[in-house]
Design a protein that fits this description.
It is a single chain. The protein has 361 residues and is α+β, with helices and mostly antiparallel strands. The protein has two domains: 4-234, P-loop containing nucleotide triphosphate hydrolases (Rossmann fold); 241-352, OB fold (Dihydrolipoamide Acetyltransferase, E2P). Helix content is 24%, strand content 32%. It has nine helices and 20 strands. The strands form four sheets. It has a six-stranded mixed β-sheet, sandwiched between helices. It has a five-stranded antiparallel β-sheet with strand order 13-12-11-14-20. It is elongated.
């Protein structure tokens, strides 16, 4: 077992700069954990603390049950893949992949076998004698991955390894990554701000903001049941509609319309309502007729139509207010400047505390 554990980890540079405040989590063999969050949330610093590239201010890093706080990066038996590839330009692909094994004193014959095995996995056999300057971006990224895989480490760490690739290549390499690590049976920690990577690659996701974990769960649970307003707004594309509504008794007021509040102990004066664009239906369409039980009917005027390919993103201004609600419709629907009625299923609404941002229902 090479389980990775972080216990109350903190990194502090000075009283004002604390990129990692108090992080505890566990990654078991075969688990793929993604650290997801915006720039500056602490995810790359956290990865560097695990790798030993940054000193720990407080807390512990445990690998295989052993505290590695005082262990140098080279002795932690981890493999790290960087955003910049970090290949030796004067060495061939074969030597780039096998250098770490050579430094460990592994015999040349064994190095050749192990490099050959990983080259087959990553389709690099025909490129072994080339140098990095003769490779495409996707090929260089595969060489960087091969260099990590060939070491047979206890833990894999990947710091935004796909961010330098174009969109189509990123999609292809993402699929290769998922297949590769599926069979490694080692803890994987992956850093990204790209939620598509997080949702498609991970067995679990830690959403970070301001140096703290906001939610640690499976991608599905994070999407369906965000723990707070930040997670709700950050995860999902198009972004969830988040509206701060005034409350009257058991009702939240949305323009000229009233919506029943969730069953909570105290009735607030204001509340945040969240609804994902794909959970809203045009009144009268087929989807709406299948989801009309306990639905709220809201009318408004179409402000904007954005074409997204197979769908359009419609923005309407709700009657009697300045609220904008965005929802998805088939590509052939274009009701610009028209008045429309939408249906919001009650079961699809997320409610959040207006002060703390925490989920209420």
């Amino acid at each position: 077992m090479a389980k990775l554990q972080l216990e109350n980890l903190q990194k502090q540079y000075n009283s004002q700069t604390i990129p990692v405040k108090d992080v505890s989590l566990q990654v078991n063999d075969g688990e793929f954990l993604t650290l997801l969050g915006p720039s500056g949330c602490g995810k790359s610093t956290l990865l560097r603390l695990i790798a030993g590239l940054e000193s720990i201010s407080k807390g512990n890093v445990m690998i295989g049950g052993k505290n590695v706080n005082g262990v140098s990066p080279g002795d932690r038996n981890i493999a790290m893949v960087f955003q910049s590839y970090a290949l030796y330009p004067h060495m061939s692909v074969e030597k780039n992949i096998g250098t770490s094994l050579k430094l460990k004193g592994i015999p040349s014959r064994e190095i050749k076998v192990r490099v050959g095995e990983v080259a087959v996995k990553l389709q690099l056999e025909s490129l072994l004698h080339r140098k990095p300057g003769q490779l495409s971006g996707g090929q260089r990224q595969r060489v960087a991955l091969a260099r990590a895989l060939v070491r047979d480490p206890d833990v894999f760490l990947l710091d935004e390894p796909l961010s330098n690739l174009d969109a189509l290549l990123r999609e292809n390499v993402r699929g290769e990554l998922k297949q590769l690590f599926k069979y490694q049976n080692k803890p994987v920690v992956y850093v990204t701000h790209d939620q598509t990577e997080a949702m498609t690659l991970s067995t679990k996701v830690a959403v970070l903001y301001d140096g703290l974990i906001q939610q640690l769960d499976s991608p599905t649970q994070i999407y369906k049941f965000p723990s707070n307003q930040f997670v709700a707004g950050f995860v999902g594309s198009p972004q969830m509609n988040l509206l701060t509504l005034k409350c009257e008794g058991n009702w939240a007021i949305l323009g000229d319309f009233k919506m029943a509040l969730p069953n909570i102990l105290t009735k607030p004066s204001e509340i945040v309502m969240g609804i994902r664009p794909e959970d809203i239906y045009l009144a009268g369409d087929e989807k709406e007729s299948n989801n009309q039980e306990n639905s709220h009917k809201i009318t408004g005027k179409v402000d904007l139509v954005e074409q997204l390919g197979k769908e359009s993103l419609i923005s309407i201004r709700v009657d009697g207010s300045d609220f904008i609600i965005r929802f998805l419709v088939p590509i052939d629907t274009n009701p610009l400047h028209e008045k429309v009625c939408i249906s919001i299923p009650e079961k699809a609404i997320h409610w959040f505390d207006v002060v703390t941002g925490d989920r209420l229902n």
